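Hi C.,

You asked whether I'd gotten around to modeling the 252-residue construct. I have! Everything is below, sequence then structure, no commentary in between.
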Amino acid sequence: MTATVSVDETGSIAVLSFGSGQRLNALGLGGWEDLQRAVHGLASFPSLRAVVVRGRGGVFCAGSDIREWDGTSDAEVGRTFDVLEAALQALEDLPVPTLAVVEGVAAGGGCQLALACDLQLLTPTARIGMPVARLGLLVPATFATRLALRIGPSRAKDLLYTGRMLTAREAWDMGLVTTLAPDDDADAALAALLTPWNGVSAASLRASKAAVDEGLHLLTEAGRRAPKGPAVDPGEFRSRVTRFLHRHRGTP
């Protein structure tokens, strides 16, 4: 594949790994494009039973690489959103079960990447959330729908309004994610979760996913068809990105 994304197929399970382990695996435009291509490639694997999505270096994904937005146009930020969303929809459209292994952090686009999977396995020290309002990013309907379908509209709005990051336990308690690992041994927790699937019909796994997704089709498709608005707050986005980058570079 690429330096950013790789696919390791072991038997009927494919592990899609991404990132470098640096900068919390924040992905630039090229990284999201690589992810989309890798997912499209997985769709052609006839013997596939499931896909595991995992960040390298013991961390999931901090979203998009904000350094790319320093000095770029609003349109370029919008293009990143478009490519990111295309990758997420490709993942959602895979016919086999998908599982995100969330270690470290899943923020912004990383949170959306986890929610684009059917299931989410979080280690106890992981954190997940949508702190995008802090940067003046304007969430599209698809982002909001992924939250609201799991935790309801009021809780989705609360998370988006406050931008707070949830602990793994908080996320599990409110139903945002499906599995909380007993400890930080993600490999053992993943194996325990996947083992029961081995005795299940592969066709039944696919049919179960399709049946649930079909029931939600009206809601998910409405979000996908919604007109695209601006990606950023034109009055505050630039200054907020500058402050964020200065703070993380250790400058005043």
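If it helps when you're writing up: The mean pLDDT is 94.

Thanks,
B.
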